[in-house]
Structure formats: C-alpha cells, structure tokens
Amino acid sequence: MILAPVEYCRPDTIDEAIEALNSSPDARALAGGQSLINVLKMRAAAVDLLVDITRLEELKGIVRHDDGSLEIGAGVTYAELAESDLLAGDPRAIAQVAADTVDPQVRHRGTIGGNVCHADPINNFPPLMVALGATMHVLGPDGAARDVSAEEFFTGFFTTAVEEGELLKSITIPALSDGASVGYVDLEIGEAAARAVAVVRTEDDQIAEARLVIGCLPIPTRRPEVEQALVGTPVTEEAVAEATAGAAEGVEPLSDADATAEYRKAVIPVVAKRAVLAAAKGGHRG
Amino acid sequence: MTAPTRVETPRWTGQNYPRKEDRRLLTGQGRYVDDRGMIRQGYAHFVRSPYAHARIVSIDTSKLENMTGVYCTLVGEEVKEMSDPLFQIAPPPGGNMVEYLMAVDKVRYQGEPVAVVLAETRELARDAADLIDVRYEPLPPVVDAIAAQEPDAPILHDEVGTNVSWQGTYEYGDIDWALAEADHVVKIDKLHFHRFSSTPIECFGVVVNWDRGTDTIEVISNNQMPMFGAMMIAPSLRIGIDRFEFTSQDIGGGFGIKINLYKQTGVLALLSRKAGRPVKWTETRTEHHLDGGHGNERWFLDVEVPVMADGTILGVKARAIDDAGAYLHYEPLGAVIWSQVLPGCYKMRHFRIDYSQSLTNKCPTVPNRGYSRMQHLWMLERIIDIVAHELGFDPVEIRKRNYVQPDDYPYETPNGCVYDSGNLPLSLDKALELIDYPKWRERQKAAEGTTKRIGIGIGSTLDSGTNNFGQSRIINRELPFSGNGEAAICKLDLYGEVSVALGTTPQGQGHETTAAQVVADILGISPEEVTVIPGFDQARNSYVGFSGTYASQFAVTGINAVIGAAEKLKAEMVELAAMALGASEDEIELAEGHARVVGDPERAIPFIGLANMIYTNNAELPTEVAERISLNCRHVYVPPFDPPDPDRKYGNLTLTYASQIHAAVVEVDTETGKVEVLDYAAVDDCGVRINPQIVEGQVHGAAAHGIAAALREEMRYDEDGQLLNANFLYYHAPSAAEMPHIKTDYVESPSPFTGTGAKGMGEGGGAPLHAICSAIQDALGSDVPVVADSFNPPERVYRLLHGEGLGAGRGVEVVSKEGS
C-alpha cells in the first residue's frame, strides 16, 4: 500500500511540536507509527503533515512519585515498559500487558501514548488505563495544559479528548490500594475480540473493592453495577460468575469478520468473570 | 596384486546436506522480483472494481492525459482491441466464457482490474489512478455457490448462459447396491470446506518489456509455472511462445497461488507495448487478497455412506458443489484433480460423486497447497469420524480396518489410479505414539464435565504427486494434453566446472541443494562443486510445457531430469577419459574431480582436461567424437503414463502417493468455543528422502498452513460480495509464535515407479484440517451438531455447543437394518 503525499517534520522541542500540530487542521503526531502508518497506507485518514515526536526527550521516561503513582511519558515504547525495572513486579500489570503486545518489532516502536491516542477498540492499554484510574496530561498551544481522566479521555471509536493541535504528554497512574491486583483477560481470535480488565482487592476471601472495565468496545466501559455486585462476593467461580453475569448488558460490541456482536455479548461475561478471578487470585491473567 | 576396487564415493543423496541457497536467502541476498528492474521502466497501478458485480458504464481517463510523469493508461476497451480472449480449459458451457486480459463491459468480483496507469513513480501511479473516473451500474451479486445454481440466480457470464461452469458424475462400483446391502447408512446433510489462501509472503510482481526492436517480451516475474502462463497468454497477445523470455530468481512462496500470475502479465505486456517502455508492477497485500487467487471452497451435499456391521465402509454417494469464483483460472482442472485420491486412504470401492462447479462473484480460485484433493480428503475424513462417532466405532480401529493395507500395494483404486507404496497403519501408530495417545485419553476422561474439554483427532491423507495431465481430458476431451515431464541441463564447463540448469521455479524448496546432491553422487564430486544455476530462465532452454514448481513433483520429475542429464554427461566424460587414458570405458571411474582408471590412480585426467578436449583442443579428437560429444547434456524425464479414458473417467492420474498421518490434541473452552492445540504430531511417508531436513521443513510448513486454515484463516465475503478481511490485520495468517510445537516422524516406503524411490510431498494433504476437525468433534461429543465446516473459529464452535450446526438438527442421520 502506498501513502498519499504528506509533509513531514521532526521538531526538537515539545513547543515546536505543538506549534507544528497547530499549523494545519490535518496535522497528526507520528510516534511509533504502528497504527498511523497503516491508516495512511489504507488512506483511511486525510493527513497533510506528520509531526515526528519520537525524539522528544520530554515524552520519554517513567517516574515513580512519592505517593506511589507512576508517570509514564507518552513516547515510552512497549518494550521500554516491558523491560522497566520500575515496573517489574508492579501490581498495575503495565509491564505484563506491554510484554504481551504483538511482537518484538512492534514493541520496540509502538508507544503507550500512540496506543491510547489511536484508541482502536482492540488496543491493549485503553481499558487498562480506565481500570487503573489513570490521568492523561494533555498539552495545547501557548502553554496550555489540562488533565483528563482516562474515563473521559476515550470518547468514541478511534477518538479521544485530545483535540486538534493538542498532544498527550504523559499518563499518571495512581497506586493501587494495598493488596489490590489487576486481572487482564482477553479472548483472542487473531486479534482480541473481547477483553475485560478488573482491579480487585480482597479481604478474607471476599471481594472488598472492584473495578471492572470491558474493552474491545468503541469506548472502554466501566460496569458500576457489576462492581457493586462484586463487593462482598466470595472468591469462587460460581459467585463471581453470578456477579458478572450482567457484564454485557447495554454494551454494543462490533460485528466483523472474526465474530458477531451477538457472540461477543455472550462471551463478555466470561472474560469479565475470568478477569475478576485472576485479579482476586493476585495475578495478571486467568 | 589384488583385484582393482572402485573407490567408494560418499553418498550425498539422503543426507541432511545444508541448503546451498540458504547463504543468500538467510542473509538478505536473495533476488526477488521487486529487487529487479529495467532501464526506463514505469510503474503500473491497477484501478479495481469496488463492486462484486456491476456493469461498467464509462471509464474517463482524461484527467491523466497531460499529467506530468504519467506515461499512459490502458482500459478494457483497448485491451479488447489489442488482444484476444484467453484460452479456456473448460468445454462448453464454461468454455464459452469470453475472458479478456482485463474487464470489458462488466466486473465480476471486488478488486477486478478495470484500468491500469503507468507513471514515473509508483506513488504517482497510485495517486493518478484515483483520478480515473469509472462509472458503474451495480448488479445483484451471487456469492453462494449453491444459490448460484438456482434458476433465478443472476448470471455472471451471459455467453456461458448458466453459473454452472462444469458438471460431471464420477461413478464407480455400484453405490446403489452398497447402500441397499449395508447394515447402516450414515447420512450427512451438508459439509462445507471454506475459502482460504496460503498467502505467500511475497505478493505478485512483474517487470515486463515488450521490446519494439525485436518484438520480444522479456518477463521477470514470480510466476511458479511460467510455461503454463506463456501458453495461456501467447494466443491472447497474438504472438508465439518464442517471443517470450520468462525469468525468475528467488520467489517468496507460491503454494500454487502464483500459477495465477498470467493474466496480469499479459495486460502489463500490452501496457508496455503501448507505452514503449518497460513496466514494473508490485502487488500490495490488499490487492493480493482481493485478486491474487484463493483456494477452492466446496460444498458436499446429501452425503450417504454405506457401512457394514464390522465397520467396513463400502463407499460414498454425494453431491459436490465447487465454488470457482468469477473466472476459470486453471479451473475446471480441480474438478478432476480431486479424483486422484477418490477413496483417500481407504479401500472403499463404490462411489457416485456428482460434481459441479459454480461461478460466483468472488475472487477466482486457483491451485492452493493441497489443491482440490484436500477438500475431498477432508470430506472423507469427516465421514470416517462421523461414522465412527454415530455407530460407536473406535476412530483408530475404523481407520485401520478400512485403510489400504501394506501388502495391497501397488493398489489400484476404483478409478484406475495406482497407489504406489505406503504403510498407513504403521504411520498412524507412530503418530499416536508421538502424542502419547493413552495419556490423552485419560486426560480427556479427567476433563469430562469441566469447561475445558479435550479432544483427540486424526487426519489421514495422501499427497498425490506427478500429475498425468491426460486427466484434463476427463474435463474436456478435446484438450491435447497428457503425461508430464521436466527438463534439466547438466554441463561440464570450460575449466571443468559442473553446472546444472533446472526447469523449475523454486520458492524455498531447496532445489539447488537436492539437485547438487544427486549430481555429486553421479559425478564423484561434492555438492559444493556443483553449481545449480538459481532460478528459471527460458533462454537456458531447460524447460518443457509442464515446467515449474507445483503439485508435489520435483523429487520425481525435477530430480529424475537432473539425474538423466548427469548420467548423459557422465557417459560422455567416461568416453573421453577412456580415449585419453587408453583404457576401456568400463575401467573408468569418476572420483575426486578426476576420471581415472580403477585400481591405477596414476592414470587419471582431471575434469578440466576433459573439458579442454572438447571446448578448446578439439583438433586432437576424431571429428566424429568432437561433433557428437558436447559435455552439455539436456535430459527430459517423462513419467510412465497412458492417457486416461474420459468416458469411464478412468486411468492412472498421478505417479506417486506420499501419505501424511497427523494426530492433534485440542482443548475446547466450552464457555467461549475457543480451540487450543495442546499436542500435535505429523508422520510423513514420501518414500526415499533425498534430503530429510528439507522434507521435514515441508512437513512443518504444511502443518502450519493447515492448522491456521482450520482455526484462523478464512477469506470472508459478505452478502454483497465484499471481502471483509483483505489484509493481514483482519486475515490472521500465523507467525511461528502462534504455532504449536509439531512433533514429526517418518515411514519410508520407497516408490517402485520413480527410480530413486522418492515421492513428491510438498503440498501435504491438508491433514491438519482433518485432524483438528476430528479432534473438535471428539471433544464436543454426541450431544451437539456434527463439525460440518472446515473452519472452526471460536464463534462457530460456540454455536455448535449451543446446538447451531450447518444442517438440519445435528446434521446427521443413521438408518440401520433391523437387527444391526
């Protein structure tokens, strides 16, 4: 596939990058290019200027703040996440999810910022960011900066709160409650077809706290009713299955060549149950 | 003094000699078509139909007329003026099809080319193509092969007058008697073999120049059967075969699909003629999915199977409806090729298969690894398992009972094919041993009642190799084809170098290595000292009409051509040496790069000396010898075939039958329908192996293709004829990471018909499709519909678990005689 003609620039600073992004309504930030270049090859978007942000030092790096929160630069690659000493053993499961993303070539180019900003329903990080209660730091022209919660960040199919001329700088992910774990389970049919992410804290073999997010939907979707039903539930397959039975109520999955929406609705409660059980048992995947 | 003894030369044949071509292929030094080019070339880009079925109202190229860098355009109406319709293999009605090199008046599948642009750069050609304004009047599409045969179905080709391109009944024995006599008749409503492709990682590519000075057409391409391509397009281009020079070096996978590269080559040749310059075209992945060619989709309807009380299966009655897509590319040869393996691995004697082929508004089908036999073998293996399941036979025992037995070979099938050799029960035992069958049966019991059920499946297949092209007469008795063959040239060059030119177009099969191994043994040198010229070049004159790399035959046709050429060369060398050394010919041996007198190593002449005698010192030779001996020996191997009898649809259709017995263990997640392969074994019997490691590589490749086809890959069209997964984002070709570990073993049953004992084995028989369907059925048990589709992604298995199958009810019915 062949790209349409497109201008390219590689600014040295974040301010120059934002200036460039504001020079045309069809400018787009180019990070690892693992999604955007394919979009351009398919001519699925009109882009007249690519602003290469891969060399911006301000977007690099992972920092652990005193309150236990992590701040991850938008330009950090999956490979850097997977191999980070700071993230090794961290209960937030970011390193494990990064390590499970596609293949080494993609992991060495693709970035967490690109993953969340592209907001493809099959992308790995959006539901995890929502489940972890992450905050996205967005920069705009003239020094503007604003924070958006992950729950408000994803606004639709391939769309986010990042407006034209803005750039995601970093993501802050708060510490989990003591003893809480992440369960991340998907059903893969070539690509993920259904996905659930759970953050669960247990006390005395009962669920004390739960967050549940369903992925592979146009917007990663929290299930507050299920979360409430889970609180006080014993950590048994039967009890968790009952509490997550309604995980697909009201959601509208996509139909495509891999699976129908009807089927996806049928298996969402299954991945939800497994994610909750995986989290309750202290582990990343069921 | 002891009697002279001949020096024991090392036997290179049969060894795992490291592949000679790997040095370049594994270090990025291969030369593929996209690495090639010609001076002054332009780049071509096709404009393709977005519709599955539409009338072309108008094509307006005027915006490109004065565009800088755009050399020219070509549309269907011009192609109609400049060329003739393609030759059709089918008899009427399919043979009445009028197919030009590019769509004229109508398009019949999404992605069909309607125009082509030539420009200074590839990017410009792509952008300029967007400025061609094509107006269409959409027509109702036909996407279902069964519905295509309904009387009210829209007709794809008016001149054909029907969507049934070919029909024939294959009847042997007495199936009505068998159905009446049988203790049980098992009836299966519907089986469906799905559409997929082996998706070679290198898409199509052509660099072509119609040279005005010589009126010759130079073609650099990755066509895997170039002389078939030449035969198809030469009449259409109104030229002779002698005008062509087809060449290729390295090819990035073919699997049969690259036989389909002739139509594009033809239209690009016309574009080159019009532009007066060379044309380069490199297909994109999406174009390849839309237009490159897919494997055959096939339905089997109203299947009836007579079974005796002891488990003996007497035969099969069925209707097969093949889906050829929109045009007949290589088809309808598939309509006879399946009958090479009519009874599969089994001693069934009674058949009536009513075979018809539908035209539909989908990409044309072309040979794809396991071509046409795989579909039929899948049906037979489904039958075996369904019979076992419904009547309570053990799936291992029923196979062993019905297999052709080791002492039956050579075994003549009901349609006159001769299975050359094999040991199917031993192969099955080895496969079961590799997976530790009893262990998995225990684990299966332990998993009962859980959400993770275990199933064990078997796939028994044949890979029939070395076609008798006479079988084409069963399709169309007017066709002037029979037999098969391949050419090779073995030459002693000026300084005593040994070189070999092949007629084949290897795509990773290691021909340079295996050819060098057999030549080394004949000429007493090492494979290192044999140069096998990479790739194909028509100008080397080392080809016949059947040349190419396809249909599991190099180990027979290619290698025997090489052996024949090397033996001719050896005879010439021995004659010269005898003359030079004053010895008799039977005293001469070739060893260590010399011709020498046995037992008297002082009396020797190096290869360079023999070369000198012919090439540069011939006044010392008698004229008769100098004129007769060339040291440049061409040999054509011709396998022993007679033309089949088209009336009875009877004859020996292939020379060799390699077998593959696969065993698969799967886990079915009953909550999601997802199938995971837990263990996998493949046992291959291809007779004598020239290079075992190359054989094993082929086994791995065929297993990966089959496992992925069974669980991940389907060319999925919607009801409008739109392909939903025309790229690798949505079409899930596997990488090594998605493959289970494949355990392999082999049985060696030498073929009595091939000289070397070797058999072709590259395609495999689609065994993983059979084994995985069998394992899924085994895991699901009897409460749910039968596994009736060859493609089983999670949703399909989930629906089976919830009672939704392909046919009515469970899709199967058993009628038993009283007391049975």
Brief rundown of the structure:
The complex is a heterodimer of chains A (286) and B (820). With 286 residues, chain A is of the alpha+beta class. Chain A contains 11 helices and 14 strands.
Describe what you observe in this structure.
The complex is a heterodimer of chains A (286) and B (820). Chain A is an alpha+beta fold and 286 residues long. Chain A has three domains: 46 residues, Uridine Diphospho-n-acetylenolpyruvylglucosamine Reductase, domain 2 (2-Layer Sandwich), CATH 3.30.43.10; 116 residues, Uridine Diphospho-n-acetylenolpyruvylglucosamine Reductase, domain 3, CATH 3.30.465.10; 100 residues, CO dehydrogenase flavoprotein, C-terminal domain (Enolase-like, domain 1, 2-Layer Sandwich), CATH 3.30.390. Chain A is built from eleven helices and 14 strands. In chain A, the strands form four sheets. In chain A, strands 4-5-10-6-7 form a five-stranded antiparallel β-sheet. In chain A, a hairpin with a 2-residue loop joins strand 12 and strand 13. In chain A, helix 10 crosses helix 11. The longest helix of chain A has 20 residues. Chain A starts with 6 loop residues before the first strand and ends in a 6-residue tail after the last helix. By secondary structure, chain B is of the alpha+beta class. Chain B folds into three domains: 160 residues, Aldehyde oxidase/xanthine dehydrogenase, molybdopterin binding domain (Aldehyde Oxidoreductase, domain 4), CATH 3.30.365.10; 202 residues, Aldehyde Oxidoreductase, domain 3 (Alpha-Beta Complex); 381 residues, Aldehyde oxidase/xanthine dehydrogenase, molybdopterin binding domain (Aldehyde Oxidoreductase, domain 4). In chain B, 26% of the residues lie in helices and 24% in strands. Chain B is built from 20 helices and 30 strands. Chain B has an eight-stranded mixed β-sheet with strand order 3-5-1-12-9-10-11-22. In chain B, strands 7-15-14-13-8-30 form a six-stranded mixed β-sheet. In chain B, strand 19 and strand 20 form a beta hairpin. In chain B, helix 9 runs parallel beside helix 19, helix 14 packs parallel to helix 15 and helix 18 crosses helix 19. The longest helix of chain B has 28 residues. Chain B is globular and about 90 Å long. Classes of the chains: A alpha+beta (286), B alpha+beta (820).
